[in-house]
Design brief:
Layout lengths: L5 H27 L8 E3 L7 E5 L3 E6 L2 E6 L8 H13 L1 E4 L11 E7 L6 E8 L2 E6 L2 E7 L10
Length: 157
């Protein structure tokens, strides 16, 4: 191999680093391809979203600093910060699966509004009990709630 000047060696290093960066960037696609294709479940709350407020029919749950508080309109129920944190954790960990075909969405549903950090408008979640499954409608898409149960996603008295 012939001698290379300092400038030529710098160019060799730069080009090899660019090739390594491209290799690392595309290797994630190669290594992960096919691994999640069989899994049709996803989280109810996107993992990149942070819940700031939840509005149920008769209760509003708000983030206050590191904790949570509940504001009720009609009756006074004392929720501890731990109870509310568990409720939020259930929402974050809940799994849903997309339903390919489904009858139209006729019957009345329970609705919950979630406000996320950095979003101007809330995301609405509509729930419907049907035989042995709970359906969730988010942005005109209908999903089946896999886990936990719907009762775990509502504030318990």
């Amino acid at each position: 191999m012939g001698k290379l000047s300092q400038r030529a060696w710098n160019n060799v290093i730069i080009v090899s680093m660019l090739i390594l960066i491209m290799l690392f960037n595309f290797s994630g696609n190669f290594l992960n391809s096919g691994s999640d294709e069989t899994s049709t479940t996803r989280n109810l709350v996107p993992s990149d979203k942070i819940i700031t407020t939840m509005v149920f029919e008769q209760l509003k749950v708000e983030r206050i600093g590191q904790g949570w508080r509940a504001i009720s309109g009609e009756h006074t129920i004392k929720y501890t910060n731990e109870m509310l944190a568990n409720l939020i954790e259930n929402w974050v960990n809940a799994e849903i699966s997309l339903i390919e075909q489904h009858n139209s969405w006729h019957s009345p549903t329970a609705a919950v509004e979630l406000w996320f950090a950095g979003q101007a408008l809330p995301t609405e979640y509509h729930f419907k009990q049907q035989q042995d499954q709970t359906l969730v409608k988010i942005n005109q898409q209908i999903y089946e709630l896999i886990s936990p149960s719907y009762q775990s996603l509502t504030p318990q008295e």
